[in-house]
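RESIDUES AND SHAPES:
===
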Amino acid sequence: MNNHVHGGDVYHYRDCLDFSANCNPLGTPESVKAAARDSLERIYEYPQVGYQPLKEAIGKYEQVDPDWIICGNGAAEVIFSVCRAGKPKKALVTGPSFAEYEQALQGVGCEVDHFWLEEEEDFRVKRDFLKALRPELDIVFLCNPNNPTGVLMDQCLLMEILKRCRELDIFLVVDECFLDFVEEPALYTLKKVLGDYRNLFIIKAFTKRYAMPGLRLGYGLCANTRLLEKMTEENQPWNISTPAQAAGMAALLENSYVEAGRQLVFKEKAYLRERLTRLGLKVYPSMANYLFFKGPEDLFQACLQKKVLIRDCSNYPGLSKGYYRIAVKKHVQNEILVKALEEIWQKRL
């Protein structure tokens, strides 16, 4: 049985236009592909253990001490290794949210409590979350903006949560993988307070920002260097391939590309939101590079018949049939999705 069900399953749904995976709509930068190709000249050598040049490049990009950085085989490995290193006994996760948090926690025998987000509140984390923070908790996972809803947390509330976690000796993991696609990410990231909170761990990835999920490269930011040492001990020594390291170094120089992708997302998301709303779909206030909406329970299959792949979110804890997520892509591709939805609706009138 395969528990890893995600978007981007183009292997089972061939010849479909994929709206189920949320990467930069501009595609992988040519410089990144060239760096990965050129690195093949060195694949007869083992990858560099410790990936210090990559850590230094990430540190410069994020304006964070390189000693506070750990890299992994995608953000998923970082999630699993922080759980293996911390060995928590009791955790709190929100629902709906990214399923890997719970899988990683259960993998180390951790008991997982859920804080269910309410549809009537657009699945927002509200102040009542503070009441769920109890001394018996070892770790809390939050995703900001959340996956699959795209909803951003109030920054003042997030800081209150962080402070409360420190008071109760709770380790807080905040997934900021989609923060690159909000309009003012600097206002929402917690990396500026890393040095003040050793109980804070931030997850980030190259996957979405540079559209390179196939190379698997993510990283964590944390001022607790002892924890990072434990994570390194838990990981296998060559967890990041030579092509992934080379691609990451090249990607971090692609500032213009990142900004162009962000601007395209802002424009096209507004277009998609308006067209989906016009069809009568309930569209939630996503601030990420995807839209989360509610529609007919058979919409996934109906779209497949139109050779369009959307993300059926019914396997997210806390969601049922009828919830979907779509990536924001280039306008021509978005028009294909809109046309498919309009044709599906026409048949039902």
